Amino acid sequence: METQQQTTNNFYIILISLVATLGGFLFGFDSGVINGTVKGLESAFNAQDIGSGFNVASMLLGCAVGAFFAGRLADSYGRKTMLLMASVFFIVSAWGSGIATSSGEFIIYRILGGLAVGAASVMAPAYISEIAPAKYRGALATVQQIAIIAGLFFSFLSNYLLANVSGSAENVLWMDYETWRWMFWMELIPAFTFMISLFFIPESPRYLVAGRKKDQALKVLNRLYGEVTAEQKVKDIDESLSKDHHRPKLSDLYDQVKGRVRPIVWIGIGLATFQQLVGINVVFYYGAVLWQAVGFGESDALLINVLSGALSILAVVVSLLLVDKLGRKPILVIGSVGMAITLALVVVAFSSGTLDANGTLQMSDNMGVLALIAANAYVVFFNFSWGPVMWVMLGEMFPNQLRGSGLAVSGLAQWISNFLVTLTFPILLVSAGLAFAYGIYTAFAFISIFFVIKYVYETKGKELEEMEG
Fold this sequence. Notes:
The protein is built from 19 helices and six strands. The chain is mainly α. The strands form three sheets. Strands 1-2 form a two-stranded antiparallel ribbon. It is globular.
């Protein structure tokens, strides 16, 4: 009977974790769908270079705001409520981005989508961490990254198939609407699925205890872990909160006794920032443009994105199998070393090229192949390590009293870094070239090795109530 009870609990925990990870799927889909629409946007709105860069990056400003306020408001209104709000914004953004008639209107809808992505990016891993047992919390939180990559993969695949039907993102597809508009509308299917599913999951028990709703928390924990464990868990959570039992707030991140921001906050900001400064989203957002710049046609470039997505999913699955055995820190170190080496090889390949009369990079066949293999290997290393593990750690490394605020600040840092990398890449591409841009990302990958070794501590197997700040 005990085994059956435990199995039922595990099934329920996995099920509600999967619902939360639909936020990750939409995070990925919304981030990746722009990839195949860039040419269509340039044609429709007459936006070039910095205009295109800002159209792509505009969503990221919303992400930064969404991550910050979702982290803060989650301490007042709950994790589930913030995920529900995110689902509504996903729906509005997907519809509006496709119906937009001007660059300004499009940017507004992309920023609304950004609010949703930012909220989902911090709330999904936090929710999963707060309902999952320590022994496989890392694996369940890593499913979030599989969902993100799956979202990217399906957005790339959807873009590729739709463009194949019409011939190009700029061509009319159905009902007198251009293909790029339909690329955005495809997101409505997972967005409505996410919203409906959220009505069937419970609120985080750790939020409920912090909000002095212990009876509700006990009911949720009974269903998650059984009656015996649930009562003890409520006590443990309660004892891990502040002694005066005040609601979690942003000022908790400041150590009043020592007169400084708590070190755990800087570690969170460091993890969040390095994940972006290695340049991963240049591949995600500008993949098609990047491969066209090195000589591939539009159709081939979109197909390469699909290949990258498939490799990424395999890499995250390997991470999922190892994160609770090998630990978070060793995986981050392996990823940093791998990214530094593969990015350096990409720089070598791009450095060998020359610009033709049209400003297009021309490379030998051998160097083109090296760039393709090294870039895909880099994506694999990222998605084995920093892709999933950074979110796993942010969701679990902060003590219960600090988690919402810590995620707010770290999420803000992550998306601002993402915005800066995404906005500056088109400018660097024109002014300094691919090799220079990738040289910068290589340097940050190299520095991240030492950051992890010196500052990041292991959280594998620890209960959330054991986290120190």
